[in-house]
Amino acid sequence: MLEEVERWLSRRSWSAADRQLDRLLAAKRAGGATVSVVLPALNEEATVGTIVATIRRDLMRDAPLVDELVVVDSGSTDRTAAVAREAGAQVVHRDDLLPRLPTVPGKGEVLWRSLLATRGDIVCFVDADLRDFSSTFVSGIVGPLLTDPEVQFVKAMYDRPLGQVGDVGGPAAADAPGPGSGSGSAGQGGRVTELVARPLLNLHWPQLAGFVQPLGGEYAARRSLLERLPFPVGYGVELGLLVDALHTVGLDALAQVDVGVRRHRHQDGQALGRMAAAIYRTAQLRLARGYLVRPRLTQFQRGADGGFEPHTHPVDTEERPPMIEVPEYAERWAA
């Protein structure tokens, strides 16, 4: 298996610099493929506007690589929708997509519904909380899909600095690097990846061991693949899509591209615990369909009386079916 992973890394692991923009534009013209970029957003007014403006300037105005830029707002209480619209994005509210089906909280829910809001042959997902954003996050991962017809699913890979205490969007003190870890802790931002996702993949899906950032929120895929995959509604969506893509199209149809450094808002330890539980559940469900260990997670916080108080949260246990099975989607594309 190690030899298979090494062969895959040599054939399906690239840098964004390997495909210059003029080559991508030529491939896009020759193949006729259209590209949609989706930003799922919840209370991201501080960053979403810059991301939208950068994509519109670099990849829509200066170089026509992206045909459609959609921000799907999942119930923001700040000015996320207004800022995204002012920057030039098409803004759609999650609840307005497939309204007959009540929405549930979760990033995967937003990504699944976004297939109804877009038309591109290639769909590229980008998180809306990125700082110091570069348009190579989009062009880098879209590139292999435009130039290589065998590639169907591409993940971004990058350094994920954890940041320092006091940084904007940085971690809380209890979540900061320990002594000797170095300023910025360049490789320590993916804590759930290293503690949960990577061990799960190496033990149960060793073919996927070569993915540097299996949980990263920046990836692109052909619509023809995405519409055939179930979407976990919550934090497990990235791992679920990666595993299901492997089983649907095979390892050689998957790829990754190095886009540099990813800086974003880090979550506190308890939020990471809930994320880890959802990811474990997503993996467990794929290992033994229909059996859940315990779809709840109890965490503890110190209360006003000085003691520890339990707080129990549900772990995402719902998945949306492949979009191609949804009548509204089939009717839209038939029309």
Descriptive account of the structure:
With 335 residues, this protein is an alpha/beta fold. The chain has one domain (2-334): Spore Coat Polysaccharide Biosynthesis Protein SpsA, Chain A, CATH 3.90.550. The chain contains eleven helices and 14 strands. The strands form four sheets. It has an eight-stranded mixed β-sheet with strand order 1-10-7-8-5-2-3-4, with helices on both faces. The protein has a two-stranded antiparallel sheet with strand order 6-11. A hairpin with a 5-residue loop joins strand 12 (296-302) and strand 13. Helix 2 crosses helix 6 and helix 3 (48-61) packs parallel to helix 4 (80-87). 45% of the residues are buried.
Strand content: 15-25%
Let me know the average pLDDT: 87
Helix/strand order, N-terminal first = HEHEHEHEHEEHEHEHEHEEHEEEH
What fold name goes in the CATH topology slot?
Answer: Spore Coat Polysaccharide Biosynthesis Protein SpsA, Chain A
What's the helical proportion of residues? Answer: 25-40%
Q: What is the C-level CATH assignment?
A: Alpha Beta
Query: What gross morphology would you assign?
Result: globular
Q: What's the architecture, going by CATH?
A: Alpha-Beta Complex
Give the helix tally: 11
Biggest beta-sheet profile = 8 strands, mixed
Count of structural domains = 1
Q: Span from first to last CA?
A: 45 Å
Which class best fits the helix and strand makeup? Answer: alpha/beta
List low-pLDDT spans: 164-186
Strand order of the largest sheet: 1-10-7-8-5-2-3-4
Tally of DSSP β-strands:
14
Our Rg estimate from Cα atoms comes to 20 Å
